[in-house]
Write a structure and sequence with these properties.
It comes from Geothrix edaphica. This protein is an alpha/beta fold. Helices cover 40% and strands 21% of the residues.
Length: 381
Amino acid sequence: MKILHLMLSCFYIDGYNYQENVLPRMNKEDGHSVRIIASTETYIDNQNLGYVAPRTYQNEDGIEVTRLPYRGGLPHAVMRKLRAYPGVYPHIEAFAPDVILFHGVPAYELLTVARYKKNHPSVKLYVDSHEDHHNSGTNALSKWVLHRGFYRSVITKVLPSIDKILYISEETKDFLIENYDIPSGMMEFYPLGGVIADESEVERRRQARRGELGLDGEDILFLHSGKLDPIKRTEALLEAFTAVDDARFRLVLIGTIGDEIRDKLDPMIQRDPRITFLGWKTSSELQEYLCACDLYVQPGGQSATMQNAMCASAPVMIFPHKSHKPYLDGNGFFVEGVEDMRRSFQEISREPGLLAPMRRRSRELAQDLLDYRKLAARLYR
């Protein structure tokens, strides 16, 4: 089977463990022929979006990636929103896919893909959506002109050509209905997932990283990661953590600290020797630290690292976003603010043994909901 992934509504970052990286990798490991057509937008320094040159190359998984620039004719800022590219149809036609997964609903190039589907009706066309009110349509121009104007006109026109629209969360489903008027019957839940290693490999990674950090069996490791900015609520996390005086507690921070909160976070980190900032780590390194931790803490915005943490058998402490509800069932804590976090840390301090059953429950939930191998197989139906 030939499977084509189109990242023309979003950025694509080589070497990460995002859905856009892992699903093609799973498709290839399952024996299929896979290609990627992507925009030139990517992370250039693991923190800020930028652009690479248009070209075709093999990615870290040996999958051919073609980077296309935006079309000309209008200012770059406009074309970046319209998401129109030259030569998409010939690239699709040259590969002749059996399955197309178009990542992201808001894009002009859905018109091109729908034209290909019309000419090749046996092709399965899936469109996934990551848009919700946290990350899209956050101002009047974006909401009314782009999403409820331009993008809605495109998706309405191509909807008869699409086999399924795959939404990653309940808030994404709400966004699709409210902004594009997508019928519920067209949609299917398709969460961001992770790769589930066998238990012996999880334990090997866990012991290696805990040894590196100088932890013994009694120590309790909390992990928080990502671009640490106000949305992540890292400052609130540090306030809650430092309020609980337990010498067994360790908190590791991985990622980058945003300039807007650096002056606040640096002194808090320096004051408590139980807190370690490790800086940016590769996706494979981060996965090993997720295996090592006893609780992954994500009290702010949403991130696929939470799903990866569950796939590493880690309990989670997360904000009760509507989209987080399927992921917490006996495997962690919902927290809305500093006091909730402080109470959860105190509960763990009094009864650290509660983390072991939470760890088993996270793995069960991950196997049921988040296994990328199962998610990839759903594209082969």
